[in-house]
């Protein structure tokens, strides 16, 4: 039992503290790049000690290549890839994959598709054969497609009932030109998804998935396995003469819009306030990233410090950049009590205007904090084979280059307060931003109009 002296905090002695050294030099791993016989680019990261190998097959199938009548067909077709193959139909395929301890997934984005495999290195050969089957010889049965259509329709209905998701969807619809695929949900809208059937899903696979423009990223400890030989055996003979490659769409901005989506009786409102933005290849990207982190990316960022800590209007508010392959968007977003929505928007607008009468340029301390955070988290983010493979796949999908992470970190370290302020003000004009609020319009519409949002629309929605 402890004595009173031991429990008395005045008698405690601080243990010797280790010295905290500056972080060491770090760079993103460099891959070995080669080409398979059919033209697929193979990108290999040999990572000793990473005994779970990660494989990402990046497929050049941008969503603007979907038939507009059945938008969402790419998502439905992708979700059926592991539901059975020609050689292993139905549940047999899933059982074989499970036997190998492997995980299979699909990622769908505007720029294309990724098929993802994670498997213990000791089971790599067997799992890779199944990985190849899922992508090149899927069954895509009518029953599986019909089931996934119903799942997707339920997801759409659920998202429309969720205030935060509805705000994000409405913001995207407003910020991008209606003709841009980026203005609509990646998984398709309800009307077009409902028209997807087995024939449409099989047609999408046959016409859009193939080796042309594809990249295969492998990361992990391969042991005695030659990754090029493995990839060649299971993907090098894949051919698809019917493959059609669709040029990547250049996203276009929509007209500025101020809108409230009415939710009667809602006790809080979800706000999105932002506009059309830039992609990661824009020379302003590093400085803009630093600026948005200072404005709304950290717990004690400018927005959070006032709207959460000082005013208590919200549990949290953020400002973020969302890049596409070309262009993108940026937004201030958060949930606020209904009775303070107008004042929250007023304060957010004042804080966001760093060049106005009440504005403040970004400081050296804010820039240093942003750079330190990004530089410090990168080695952790890419500490696993999956983290490395995922980033390398994104680099291929949106054309960033293998050295993007290392190059971007170097450019971040060169950002000055002046550069951060200039990049930010070139994007953020508070008088030209789109405002989307999901909440009780009967309470919040008039106060927002009093702030100067004279053209505010009120959209009455069900639910």
From TrEMBL:
Domain Peptidase M16 C-terminal positions: 200-368
GO MF annotation: an example: metal ion binding
Superkingdom of source: Bacteria
Record-given protein name: Predicted Zn-dependent peptidase
Every Peptidase M16 N-terminal domain range: 48-172
Organism listed in the record: Microlunatus sagamiharensis
């Amino acid at each position: 039992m402890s004595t009173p002296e031991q429990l008395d905090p005045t008698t405690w002695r601080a243990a010797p503290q280790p010295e905290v050294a500056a972080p060491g030099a770090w760079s993103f791993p460099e891959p070995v790049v080669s080409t398979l016989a059919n033209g697929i680019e193979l990108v290999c990261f040999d990572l000793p000690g990473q005994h779970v190998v990660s494989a990402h097959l990046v497929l050049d199938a941008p969503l603007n290549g979907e038939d507009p009548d059945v938008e969402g067909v790419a998502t439905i077709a992708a979700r059926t890839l592991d539901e059975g193959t020609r050689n292993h139909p139905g549940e047999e395929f899933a059982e074989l994959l499970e036997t190998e301890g492997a995980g299979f997934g699909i990622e769908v984005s505007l720029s294309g598709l990724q098929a993802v495999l994670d498997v213990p290195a000791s089971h790599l050969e067997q799992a890779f054969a199944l990985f190849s089957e899922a992508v090149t010889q899927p069954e895509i049965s009518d029953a599986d497609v019909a089931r996934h259509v119903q799942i997707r329709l339920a997801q759409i209905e659920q998202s429309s009932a969720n205030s935060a998701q509805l705000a994000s969807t409405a913001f995207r619809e407003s910020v991008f030109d209606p003709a841009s695929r980026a203005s609509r949900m990646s998984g398709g809208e309800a009307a077009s998804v409902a028209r997807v059937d087995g024939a449409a899903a099989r047609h999408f696979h046959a016409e859009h998935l193939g080796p042309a423009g594809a990249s295969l990223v492998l990361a992990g400890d391969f042991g005695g396995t030659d990754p090029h030989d493995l990839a060649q055996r299971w993907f090098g003979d894949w051919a698809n003469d019917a493959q059609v490659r669709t040029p990547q769409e250049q996203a276009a901005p929509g007209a500025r819009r101020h809108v409230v989506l009415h939710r009667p009786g809602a006790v809080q409102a979800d706000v999105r306030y932002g506009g059309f933005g830039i992609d990661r290849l824009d020379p302003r990207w590093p400085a803009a990233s630093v600026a948005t982190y200072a404005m709304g990316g950290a717990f004690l960022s400018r927005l959070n410090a006032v709207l959460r800590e000082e005013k208590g209007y919200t549990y949290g508010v953020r400002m973020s950049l969302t890049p596409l392959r070309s262009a993108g968007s940026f937004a201030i977003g958060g949930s606020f009590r209904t009775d303070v929505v107008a004042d929250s928007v007023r304060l957010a607008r004042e804080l966001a205007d760093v060049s106005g009468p009440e504005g403040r340029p970004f400081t050296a301390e804010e820039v240093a904090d942003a750079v330190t955070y990004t530089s410090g988290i990168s080695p952790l983010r890419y500490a696993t084979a999956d983290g490395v493979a995922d980033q390398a796949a994104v680099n291929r999908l949106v054309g960033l280059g293998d050295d993007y992470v290392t190059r971007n970190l170097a450019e971040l370290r060169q950002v000055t307060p002046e550069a951060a302020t200039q990049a930010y003000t070139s994007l953020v004009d508070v008088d030209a931003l789109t405002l989307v609020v999901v909440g009780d319009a009967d309470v919040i519409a008039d106060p927002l109009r009093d702030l100067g949002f004279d053209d505010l629309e009120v959209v009455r929605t069900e639910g």
